[in-house]
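Subject: Protein record for review, amino acid sequence with backbone structure tokens
How to read it: Take the token row as a discrete description of the fold.
Enclosed: The protein record, placed directly beneath this head.
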Amino acid sequence: MQVFSKTEKQNIKEEFNDLIVNCQRCNKREDKALINKAFNIANDAHDNMRRKSGEPYILHPIAVAKIATREIGLGVKSIICSLLHDIVEDTEYTLKDVEHNFGPKIASIIDGLTKISGVFDNKSSLQAENFRKMLLTLSDDVRVILIKLADRLHNMRTLDALPPHKQYKIAGETLYLYGPLAHRLGLYAIKNELEDLSLKYQHPKIFNEISKKLAATEKKRLQAINKFSLPIINALNKNNFHFEITGRTKSIYSIWNKMQQKQVSFDEIYDLLAIRVIFKPKPRMVEKTQCWNIYSIITDIYTPKPERIRDWISQPKANSYEALHVTVMGPSGQWIEVQIRSERMNEIAERGFAAHYKYKGLKSSESELDKWIKTIREHLSNPNSDALQFLDEFKLNLFSQEIMVFTPKGLLVTLPKGSTSLDFAYEIHSEIGNKAIGAKVNHKLVPLNYKLSSGDQVEIITSDKQKTQLEWLDYVTTVKAKSAITNSFKSEYKNRIFRGQKILESKLKELNISPSSHIFKKLFDGYNVSNKDELYSKIGSELISLDDIDKKLEKKSRKKWVKYWSIQLKSSTTKIDKKSKNKNNRKIKNPLIIDDAIGDADEKNIKYQIADCCNPIPGDDVVGFKSDEGITTIHQATCNEAIKLMSSRGDSIVPATWVSNKIMSFLIRLKIKGIDRDGIYFDLANVISNEFNISIRSLTLESKNGIFDGKVDCYVHGKDDITNLIDKLYKVNGIDEIIREEKFED
């Protein structure tokens, strides 16, 4: 253990003094005394301990405390907990010691911040259990989660010191859970930084490219902001508003995400700019009225885009965000979004949940944020819920978009976008959901899986004879609905699983086949299920018949023309023979380096497979996940399933990169949309087959009212082929949109 130098000790003292001096909510002498006491205990506990970067460990708790108070707006108790958050986990101090020195409340928060230790069976996940434990404190104190977000933010800011596989794990977990959680709690600045930092470590080249392009165009953007803002400033001054105008650029992650979704380049992202007008409300005037007054002033100057008006002052977002957004045509012919907020609205937008509670007394009704936390508490109250299942369902409800629907009596209900009439029924009451047989939406009869839209008025039709159905789980999206359905037939569901397992085992025995992960993978693909329990349950409830099981097991992967994969791992494994004949009977070799080992699969005897959920090809950023059986599955690094695995099975990450791909072919699908015309089919086929010498498997176009939708399945050697092909296809007259579909049925 390396003893701290005088310089390091002086740096620790200066950082702590900076925390105290700049703490706006640490004015009382007794508060400062408690913070000093917490620091002294933490400093003593972490004495001579260092982080992976080599710096004194105590600087991390101090940094977390600064984020908690300055960037989130928390108070004295949160500063104390931030300073002490690692002492129980990493030192000899116990929760009893914390309670003795600071009382039960501080001890309870520290307990929520302390990771679970111990060994879990292979059906569990330490990451998921730790996340679930942290969320359990929602029933007691939400500050645990706010401090955890501060802790995660500082860890992301200092992630350089960790090896690549750890960076992947932490960045994936951050993107999957902590970014959406920060958004759900209204911490937009923290959410954006977490997403940007995740992108930096998952895709460093992309991050650096976009950063450089933003830096190169910064001067031009500032000029555009000034030119756009000047007429608004003059008009608001004329109307005696006290305000400030700030310009902001879309975050790097948001830009990249839009480039991915729209399949466009950086230069084709036109809404990089947004302007905020933050005003001090005039006395004796309603904030909402003043927002619309400012809106009127702005739209007198610039023409608004009607479909891009967002009114979150009449009905705030579920995370309590309030603002009026309008997109207008700027003087240079580009669309610019203007966000109109009062000072109160802006503080809630910047500091989220903490600021929400500061102003909570101003409104008597329960906010959507309160309702969301209440829903999570209800779900957490079930002691038998599986941590991984909870993780999935919790993630589902970190929704960024909401719809607002009405009861027959006109009461407003907020639901995640994509919710059905059955979600609505369970949102009203679990018994109404359990007895639901249908619904009337806007006075028209609809089924339970009908997707609702904002503004719909919904009436649920019930029957005492109705029983919950297994397929209802496919109808709903909310945690509340899924939990209620699962609880209502949990025992019956277990019986179905047991019955289905016995039926399948008997059938496999009859066919003289031994169950294995390879066999189950074929069954999962063949019967379109994701796990054993779902397979057993559907067999047990006779939703799946095993009469055609032999055909399902004989069905070969669409990658049958791949000769073999070559992968390297540090640990010794056993080779899976992937050899087969492709259509030209060519020998194909596609080396893929996993981790930093050297050598081919033939030499190292590697066991691996390519994920069907995202179908990575050479050129894609990829990452591997090693299963308990020793099989490494290769995913695209952007794959939703991969990001989920980073959050629940992060210790199984195996970094991977392509080495070469000279004569290998991969089946890919492109979805194409455009304006129909004579000869469009011939032009597309000509570009693909003749100009690029790419083998087309199928090309279909369907035209309606002058617009066509099409898809092309073809064989390529790698991502460069796709990029070049898409660029060339966009030059074909009439093509409007081309998207690579990563998951498709062969």
